[in-house]
Write a structure and sequence with these properties.
Layout (H helix, E strand, L loop, with lengths): L1 H20 L6 E7 L2 E9 L2 E5 L3 E8 L4 E6 L2 E9 L4 E5 L9 E6 L3 H8 L1
Antiparallel strand pairs: 1-2, 1-8, 2-3, 3-4, 4-5, 5-6, 6-7, 7-8
C-alpha cells in the first residue's frame, strides 16, 4: 500500500512540475511585422529589457504575475500590460503613452506566430 501511495504521489508531483515548467518565458526579442518586414520592438532579459521606438527606453520592472512591465519617459513611469500567447504573439497595451492606438502586437523571434506573420 505504501508503494502505491508513493508512486501516486510521485506521479502527481511530476505532472505538477511539468505543467509549471511549460509557462511561456517572456525573455527574448519581439518584432513588429508589417508588409513582411520585421522591426525590433521589445527585448526582455534577466535584467529587464529594452523598448524600441523613436528612442530606446530601458524596461525597468517586469512583473510576470500581474503581466506588466515598466519603462520611463521624461521621468514618468509608463506601466504596460501584456498577454503572451503560446504561439509567441505578445499583445501589449501602453495605456495613454501613445496617442494613436494603445494596443500593439509583437511576435517573438522564430516563433510560430513570427514565421506566419512574415509570410503575410
Amino acid at each position: 500500500m505504501k508503494k502505491i501511495f508513493s508512486l501516486l504521489l510521485l506521479g502527481i508531483t511530476t505532472i505538477f512540475l511539468i505543467s509549471c515548467s511549460k509557462q511561456n518565458s517572456l525573455y527574448g526579442k519581439y518584432y513588429d511585422i508589417y508588409d513582411g518586414k520585421a522591426k525590433l520592438a521589445l527585448e526582455f532579459n534577466e535584467n529587464g529589457g529594452k523598448f524600441y521606438e523613436n528612442e530606446t527606453r530601458a524596461i525597468t520592472n517586469i512583473d510576470t504575475k500581474n503581466k506588466t512591465f515598466t519603462f520611463s519617459v521624461n521621468g514618468r513611469d509608463v506601466v504596460v500590460t501584456y498577454d503572451l500567447k503560446e504561439n509567441g504573439t505578445l499583445k501589449y497595451d501602453t495605456g495613454s503613452y501613445f496617442t494613436s492606438g494603445n494596443e500593439n502586437i509583437a511576435y517573438k523571434k522564430d516563433s510560430e506566430a513570427y514565421k506566419k506573420a512574415l509570410k503575410k
